[in-house]
């Protein structure tokens, strides 16, 4: 797992995942099948009686909380020296999850919101892929 500041130095098979102009700051350097996990997640919601609209609202609320947590930590240390690694550790602790789990959820949730057409793949939201070769 790598951190956003080291992006130019790594191979990122998952691309970058943006929500509200914020990129997921955790880069997993191995392929994560977030598309498959996203479809499994959608199927599970539907099998449990949720509508696509309700499912989208739940996923969006979860991603809103994750993104706001990042913004809050960044604001907390705006004029203080604190490494990105420490900020990410604090974010994971605040969210009650591991960094890898949060990254997987972020990517999967953005994918689901794109599929449900709740967000558009534009300058603020969606996926960005690049080849560093």
Low-confidence stretches: 1-10
Number of helices: 4
- The number of E-state strands comes to 5
Q: Helix proportion of residues, in percent?
A: 40-55%
| Secondary-structure-derived class | mainly alpha
Largest sheet features? 3 strands, antiparallel
Q: Give the spatial strand order of the biggest sheet.
A: 3-2-5
Average residue pLDDT: 83
- Rg over CA atoms, rounded to whole Å, is 15 Å
Task: Explain the overall architecture.
By secondary structure, the chain is mostly helical. The chain has a domain at 2-64 and 102-128. The chain has helices spanning 34-47, 52-76, 84-95, 99-115, and strands at 2-3, 16-19, 22-23, 26-27, 126-128. The model is unreliable at 1-10 (pLDDT under 50).
Properties at a glance:
133 residues, 10% strand, disordered N terminus
Give me a quick take on this structure.
With 133 residues, this protein is mainly α. The chain has helices at residues 34-47, 52-76, 84-95, 99-115; strands at 2-3, 16-19, 22-23, 26-27, 126-128.
Question: Secondary-structure map with pairings?
Answer:
Blueprint (H helix, E strand, L loop, with lengths): L1 E2 L12 E4 L2 E2 L2 E2 L6 H14 L4 H25 L7 H12 L3 H17 L10 E3 L5
Antiparallel strand pairs: 1-4, 2-3, 2-5
Helix pairs in contact: 1-4, 2-3, 2-4
